[in-house]
Amino acid sequence: MPALIATIPIPRDLPLPLPVPEWLLVVCLVVFFLVHILFVNLMVGGSVFVVVAEWMGLKNKRWDALAHEIAQTVTVNKSLAVVMGIGPLLCINLLYTIQWYSANALTGHAWLLIIPLVIVAFLLTYLHKYTWDTWAKGRKKTLHQAIGITAMLLFFFIPVIFLANVNLMLFPSEWEKVRGFFSSLCIGNVLPRYLHFMAASIAMTGLFLAGYFGRKNADISHLDDFTCPELRRLFYKVCAYVTLGQFALGPLVLFTLPSDGITTQVYVIIFSGAAVGLLTLWLLFGELRRDDTRIGSRYWPIAALFSIVVFGMGSGRHVYREAALAGHKAAIKNRTERYAAALADFNKNLAAAPAPAGQSAEQLFMNCAVCHAPNVKLVGPPLTEIAQIYAGNPEGIVTWAKAPGKKRPELPQMPPFNHLGEASLRKIAELMLEKGATSK
């Protein structure tokens, strides 16, 4: 532990209670994050399919119609990705407060740019979708394509910021080397993880669209020359071949992971997920060999196996994160405990100090002004609130100041001030009541 403290920034924590049990936050973090990332995958992958299909539509109009249909799903998945992102963000704030906000600060302007970049990407996506019948079919076709490509590129870039941030929080030992966003990309294995994420986005979107166009009530009469089996086969093929590529990218991600969080449990989870992935891949290629009347009959088993693989990846990621941060979290806890002990000693010595003599009420109140403002809550309640509680009862304030308890769990306990003496505390109490009454 001493060596760790000497080489890594170790801030002290605020020992505040969690609103729910920690295990529940962990479960919520894993589940909420996976739901969020699913819709992010569909949003990013959908934007790629739209751009590619619209480009192919320059030579064959049926692809343009398909691109328009896929564009309808992108805006819906975009909205769900945003809504579902709130849960994991709140959970990670509570579980890894210091590491998360440290990474936020170190990535600087890029992290602050996420919201305006997301807004611009969303507006461009809606503009691309709702100008299809006017711009895409007229002289503004090039402009329409440019809008779609710009939105897609923004969807490509925004996850890089998130990945850099989430990755950076895992390696406190590297924080002092970071000089902004671009230097944070050199920490850990951001690039392999990003490539894995992009491939997953294409594969998951392919599987989603295979189900979307293969559902029983799917109306594709407006899609020239396409049939449901043809579309299902097309998107199954994309999903299958990209998933096959994941078996090359997966080991790249694994073997470029810094060793900080690698444990036997991580290996077990990852290789178990890979085994289920192989079974999924076998079913996918089996579907491609089926004729048009039977293709799609195994869609839900394939989707279920994909879900198991994704859940395993999410669980493995959390196990790695916990192992990587175990030493840092222990060091923070140790430093917080040492700080609390030092504060207790300070308060004890303060209580034993001789009482000051000949000071005015205003001078004596300086002992309290750090924590108590006239009408603003600081560390302790404002004077307006104290005046309400102890109206006409300065002795109650004196009694409390000599032996304070702890009424508010979210605030630190007030140290005793009996070293000031009864007379001085009486002066302070009367001034507090006077200031509290006149500050309303």
Please explain how this structure is put together:
The chain is an all-alpha fold and 440 residues long. The chain has two domains: 2-212 and 314-335, no CATH class; 356-438, Cytochrome Bc1 Complex, Chain D, domain 2. 72% of the residues lie in helices and 0% in strands. The chain is built from 17 helices and no strands. The protein has helices at residues 2-7, 22-56, 61-84, 86-95, 97-107, 109-130, 132-136, 141-168, 181-184, 190-212, 228-256, 264-288, 299-352, 361-369, 383-389, 394-402, 422-438. Helix 2 packs across helix 4, helix 2 runs antiparallel to helix 8 and helix 15 (383-389) packs across helix 17 (422-438). The protein is elongated. Residues 1-6 have low confidence and may be disordered.
Shape: elongated
The ordered string of helix (H) and strand (E) elements is HHHHHHHHHHHHHHHHH
Cα-atom radius of gyration: 30 Å
Structural class: mainly alpha
Residue share in helix: over 70%
Strand content: under 5%
Query: Helical region count?
Result: 17
Please give the largest β-sheet: none
Number of domains: 2
- The counted number of beta strands is 0
Which regions are unreliable across 5 or more consecutive residues at pLDDT < 50?
1-6
Give the N-to-C terminal Cα separation. Answer: 51 Å
Global mean pLDDT: 90
Question: Short description, anyone?
Answer:
Helices cover about 70% and strands about 0% of the residues. With about 450 residues, the protein is mainly alpha-helical.
List the helices and strands and how they pair.
Elements: H1 2-7, H2 22-56, H3 61-84, H4 86-95, H5 97-107, H6 109-130, H7 132-136, H8 141-168, H9 181-184, H10 190-212, H11 228-256, H12 264-288, H13 299-352, H14 361-369, H15 383-389, H16 394-402, H17 422-438
Helix pairs in contact: 2-3, 2-4, 2-8, 2-10, 2-13, 3-6, 4-5, 5-8, 6-8, 8-10, 10-11, 11-12, 12-13, 14-17, 15-17, 16-17
